[in-house]
Amino acid sequence: MSDGQDHDLLAAEYVLGALEGEERREAERRLAVDPMFARSVAAWQQRLTPLASHAAPMSPPTDLWQRIEARIAPAATADIVPLRRRVRFWQGTTAGALAIAASLAAFIVLRQPPPPRVAVLSPLVGGAPVLMAQAETNDRLVVRPTTAIAVPTDKDLELWALPQGETRPRSLGVLPPSGRQLTAQLAPNTQLLVSLEPKGGSPTGQPTGPVLYGGWLTAAESPRG
Amino acid sequence: MSATAQIPQADDTEALVHRCAGGDQAAFRQLYDRWGSRLYGIALRITRQAVLAADATQEAFVQIWQQAHRFDPDRGGPEAWLIGIVRYRALDIVRRHAREVPGYEPEDRADDAPDALTRLVSTAEGAALHRCMDQLGQDRRQLVVMAFVDGLSHSELAERLKVPLGTVKSWIRRSLMSLRECLAA
Question: Do B157 and A18 touch (CB under 8 A)?
């Protein structure tokens, strides 16, 4: 069906959207591994996209932006905001409590000098976040799973840092599914990636298996904000 | 040009995508403001259910944010990239849900909606595609639109047109070959 000379037509059928079942999965597999096929897909996408004009623009549900924002926002904000509310609560009670509030606020500020950076790592193919990473100013990076991650017994996950504008990620080592703390200096705009590698990590120093999850390190909301 | 005022300009969109790649959330919001209704409309046409269309659009924007750095202008414009993402997310959803709305008939309005035509021919590429689509003839043209715009699969098309699966597949292949030839000319 999809021999060499027909790869461009398979790409066309894939872009058209008519493929289903095994044929569709086959096209997706090729897209991931075959650069020539990927180029064909991109070219067909460019050719056929004007057809999308047949679908009239429609107003999305009003809460859609909030749903999207919740998915991309640094999840650590959720931990920090309640602390701020606690501060406000204490401030609103008695004068004596003010001192506690002040020390609590000082504690927050001292404990987290400038805001830490966080990354939410989600499957690159789309889906719910799988890992959370927090980078602190002392170069400490804490990565923890937000859900159970199954790794084949003969494989390991490996964590990579890819600063913006660079093309070769730097290995931050093997990542146990239970998470890990490590020390790493990370540029301001850095993407964290997780790939599936042979046991013990990539033998080449670059990802050799599929890159499963990724996310950008962005500044969390400042507690003093 | 008032007819195209609603269509986001490709240059601006490309700049916004690049800013998203740098983690600029304000640019992402602008991208949503410009493209949200367009992408949602595309997803709705494929999924036919508001809830599923919202899910597809949400997944698409999350993917756009996360993969903005992978957008490669050498491979095509930002419009094709954005629309491609929402279409695949919507198709994922309908192929998974296997069309839970039996008996749904896509509207046969594809070729005659005047504003659709205005949008289609508002770019050089769109005008060329329109010309080549015309050469396919009404039936084949409708087939291509039902697949691309309504997201109907080979077997759904066969069922709807009451022709064997193999026939639909060969019609589509011939239509695509003819489009490729016409667009290259």
Answer: yes
Q: Kindly report, residue by residue over A157-206, the tens digit of the pLDDT.
A: 999 998 887 778 889 999 988 888 888 888 878 889 998 888 888 888 88
The three-point CA angle B93-A218-B27 to 5° equals: 65
Whether the full predicted model's pTM is greater than 0.90, yes or no, is: no
Q: What 3-state class would DSSP assign to A145? A: strand
CB-based contact (8 Å) between A111 and chain B?
no
Q: Between the CA atoms of A82, A87, A90 and A92, what dihedral angle is there, to the nearest 10 degrees?
A: -100
Q: Is the CB of residue A132 less than 8 Å from the CB of residue A143?
A: yes
Residues A17/B91, Cβ–Cβ less than 8 Å = yes
Q: Determine how β-strand A190-198 pairs with β-strand A180-183.
A: unpaired
Contact yes or no for A8 and B180 at CB 8 A: yes
Question: Cβ of A50 under 8 Å from any chain B Cβ?
Answer: yes
- DSSP H helical ranges for A34-165: 35-48, 64-72, 77-91, 95-111
Q: Do A20 and B95 touch (CB under 8 A)?
A: yes
Q: Name the residue facing A126 among B46, B63, B177 (closest C-beta).
A: B63
Q: Could you identify the residue written with the tokens 């269309």?
A: B53
- With both helix axes pointing from N to C terminus, report the angle between B78-97 and B25-47 in degrees, rounded to the nearest 10: 50
**Residues of chain A contacting residue B143, judged by C-beta atoms under 8 Å apart:** none
Helix or strand holding residue A155 (H, E): strand A155-163
Candidates B130, B135, B139; CA nearest to B172 is B139
Cβ burial of A41 (10 Å; 0-12, 13-18, 19+) is: buried
ipTM, 2 decimals?
Answer: 0.86
* Strand, helix or coil for residue A33: helix
